[in-house]
Amino acid sequence: MTKFERFDETNAPAEALPLIEKSKKAFGRLPGLHAVMAASPALLDGYQVLHRLFAEETAFDADEKTVVWQTINVYHECHYCVPAHTGIAKAMGVSDDISDALRDETPLPNAKLEALRDFVLIMLDTRGNPSEAQMQAFFEAGYEQRHLLDIILGMAQKVMSNFTNHVAETPVDAPMQKFAWTPKSKR
Question: What residue ranges define each of the domains in the chain, with the CATH number in brackets?
Fold first, then answer.
């Protein structure tokens, strides 16, 4: 197995140093994902930018952001991101009912959130080629074109993190280990 190095301010490429500092400031520590991504300062920078944009500038509320992020994480079976986003959801005030339903792939507490999860799964399954009927059903659930495009932003962000964690087998950070998760396919 290829071992991926984890970087911090003592061994990272010079271009990654301000990005590492930015991560530590945002999270109070250097997340393992960011320590791995620091080998490619461009990847870490891109990930930080997409994370900020999705977290701060999309039309989604905290529950909806969690639905988008966790649906993608669960779909990709990301051992690192599902626990991390469980902790993030708690910090954002998202109910455990929503987090548990996403982690366990059980029904969400309301139809609008379920329609969002369904549409994210359609986008993943079709590689971004939903049918007109599928898009109309999403819009009829109360979402707009901006929401659809914001999903694509979230997908781009999560591909970066989920795939990095797959190839690097990034260990789950200590504060998130209490939210450890096993995909349904491996239970």
Answer: 59-186 (1.20.1290.10)
- Taking the whole predicted model, whether its pTM rises above 0.85 is answered as yes
d(CA 79, CA 98) in angstroms, rounded, equals 19
100-130 pLDDT, tens digit per residue, is 999 999 999 999 999 999 999 999 999 999 9
pLDDT tens column, 160-180: 999 999 999 999 999 999 999
The pLDDT of residue 34: 98
Secondary structure (H, E, C), the chain:
CCCCCCCCCCCCCHHHHHHHHHHHHHHCCCCHHHHHHCCCHHHHHHHHHHHHHHHHHCCCCHHHHHHHHHHHHHHCCCCCHHHHHHHHHHHCCCCHHHHHHHHHCCCCCCHHHHHHHHHHHHHHHCCCCCCHHHHHHHHHCCCCHHHHHHHHHHHHHHHHHHHHHHHHCCCCCHHHHHHCCCCHHHC
